[in-house]
Amino acid sequence: SYVLTQPPSVSVAPGQTARITCGGNNIGSKSVHWYQQKPGQAPVLVVYDDSDRPSGIPERFSGSNSGNTATLTISRVEAGDEADYYCQVWDSSSDWGFGGGTKLTVL
Amino acid sequence: EVQLVESGGGLVQPGRSLRLSCAASGFTFDDYAMHWVRQAPGKGLEWVSGISWNSGSIGYADSVKGRFTISRDNAKNSLYLQMNSLRAEDTALYYCAKDIRTGLRPSYFDYWGQGTLVTVSS
């Protein structure tokens, strides 16, 4: 199966930039999607196809993907961004696979 | 407004069965593939099963293959998951999720329901 590796946690001060990585073998050749999940809530799509944003998602959320690492970048982090973030790709060996998730803490 | 409302969860003994439902509204249901994704308590997301718009293509995670059956009724705008031979490790919040495509191809989920909790315990 195709393994996606995320750091368990990332901490950042308000107003700073948070970068959450998602590692996978040659992940740059795949489309990566990111979901935000706040406590007690369903996941919400925040970035799709590596770097596109759904309507209603702030421009502060951006994504990139190259080589073996995809990155979700959150600029000017706010307290309301505190959540778990999951990357997701489709692969023939694992279908719709998710990373283990990263807990973003706003200090 | 897209709405996905799951139901049917509950406490069930190991080895027993349960059927989950997902009522969809706010979009043309039979234009999209649909999925079930679960999340064990305190754990991450796990794709469980997906079904194409016309039920012509169906897929399952290895962990549920042979035990779970996904289906849909486009006339009722509803998605289902029949879960048999339930195990303790099936305990999770089960989400219904809408695909962006009609078929089961590389894709992602643009809308999710709030989930229904399944607890497998004696």
Overview of the molecule:
The complex is a heterodimer of chains A (107) and B (122). By secondary structure, chain A is mainly beta. Chain A has no helices and nine strands. Chain A starts with 8 loop residues before the first strand and ends with a strand. Chain B has 122 residues and is mainly β. Chain B contains no helices and eleven strands. In chain B, the strands form two sheets. In chain B, strands 2, 4, 5, 6, 9, 10 and 11 form a seven-stranded mixed beta sheet that branches. A four-stranded antiparallel beta sheet of chain B has the order 1-3-8-7, with no helix packed on it. At the A-B interface, β3, β7 and β8 of A face β5 and β10 of B.
Overall mean pLDDT of chain B:
97
Overall morphology of chain A = globular
Radius of gyration of chain B: 13 Å
The largest pleated sheet of chain A is described as: 6 strands, mixed
Number of strands of chain B: 11
Rg from Cα of chain A? 13 Å
As a percent range, the share of strand residues of chain A is over 45%
So what's the overall shape of chain B? globular
Helix content of chain A: under 10%
Fraction of residues in helix of chain B: under 10%
**What is the string of helix and strand elements of chain B?**
EEEEEEEEEEE
Characterize the main sheet of chain B.
7 strands, mixed
Report the structural category of chain A.
Answer: mainly beta
Q: Detail the poorly predicted runs of chain A.
A: none
What is the H/E order of chain A?
EEEEEEEEE
Briefly say what this structure is.
By secondary structure, chain A is an all-beta fold.
